Amino acid sequence: MMPLVVMGFPQFATLRIYYTDAEVAAAGLSEGNLRLYRFNGSTWEFQGGTNDTVANYVELAGVSAFSEWALADPADNPLPVELVSFTGVATPNGVQLSWTTASERHHAGFDLRRSLYQPTQPETWQTIASYSTLPELRSKGTTNSLSHYAFLDGTVETGKTYIYQLRSTDFDGTWYDHALRVTVRVPELSSALNYDYRLEQNYPNPFNPSTSIRFTMKEAGSAILVVTDVLGRVVFREILNAKQGENEYQFRASNLGSGMYFYTLYVSGFQQTRKMMLIK
Prior knowledge:
It is elongated and about 90 Å long. A hairpin with a 2-residue loop joins strand 8 (81-91) and strand 9. It is mainly beta. Strands 8, 9, 10, 11, 12, 13 and 14 form a 7-stranded antiparallel beta sheet that branches. A 4-stranded antiparallel beta sheet has the order 1-2-6-5, with no helix packed on it. It has helices spanning 21-27, 189-192; strands spanning 4-9, 12-18, 35-39, 44-48, 50-52, 57-63, 68-72, 81-91, 94-116, 126-130, 138-143, 147-153, 161-170, 175-185, 198-199, 210-217, 221-229, 234-242, 245-252, 259-267, 270-278. Residues 203-277 form the Secretion system C-terminal sorting domain.
């Protein structure tokens, strides 16, 4: 192989490995399928990359660790789990992670690993969820159909950036880390919790005898929920201690008769009214 070229800053480099047509032909490989593999000290991990068959190189961006690298054809060394997507998004409740596999062979399940992103420090990985204790991270074993997984990491801190990685374990105990990673920044509270006051439609509707009333608060505080009948008479009034963001109140109408009712939320100069139907 020809010399490799590393471009960019050390913590996030772009790796490029050149090859010759003669080398590919001698190895019996398909040039269009060439991808990068990294040696982790015990096994070769698939890393992916994009190839340029005109300039004769394979390139991978976002490299953050030094190691031995090689070119190979994944068709000759298929991984037991074909991971096709891995995404993460910051929410008010934590980081919502989702991933999809196209196929799995003799697969026991996933471990979800996390490292705090610190540009000048090495990655420090810890397992935050495991198939050994969480049924939702366990595999079907062997399947050629799409499989979807999800996990909410509720232990993050605002203002910090996290890197997530998936580790697969086979039935024989063999494990390997997937190359596809997700980096998520959890915003500061001031920007993460940017809410407006809002009253949602109750559910279910019609209902009997109870229904859920959801509402959103711009900031934590008191809210007043008032229910009136079609004649405008107040049949229910409650002061609610609400948190910032989404709230839910379970309204029970056991002592009311069937008919149309109106419920109104009052808070800090805001009010909104919606209709609901009680059928007994």
